[in-house]
Amino acid sequence: MDILAHSLCTSAAAAFVNRRSDRPVRLWWTVFFGVFPDLASFTVPAVLRIWWRVTGVTKTLLPQPGGPRFDWVFGLCNCVHSLLIFGVVFAAAWAIARRPVWETLGWLLHIVIDMLTHRGWFAIQYLWPVSSVHFDGIPWETGWFLAATYAALAVIFFLLWRTRARQTNHTAARAQTR
What we know:
The protein is an all-alpha fold.
């Protein structure tokens, strides 16, 4: 899944939680953790490729045969997409904060979504470093799946907006009758 879709998914989840919970989560931290695995994995190669393109070192942003390879990215990608690593970090954050840091569940949501939307070379090794087991999901770049995901997100945000508007109108009407 792309970073925009991850941000939208985690912000929708955080908005839903905040409407149902007495202890709200901080939206921006939840979204940060929701995109963290991809930022950690791909920011350096992306920035370098853009820099090389801007400075004329290369004519394309795509990898070139015989060009620089970023093989270390796959190890880092496995690390930040691992349920085991997430569990260790979640437990450490809980120990340090002396409470569960619920915003980090955006990271967990990212891993689960990627497990279902990656296959082949980019399949998520969700038990790394213990195992390379993975699940071949529906490729994110599949046209109908991409369209369906964004359509579903649009519906979810519409419903979140609509219920928020109803709550605001209901509260305003109650205040006027007092």
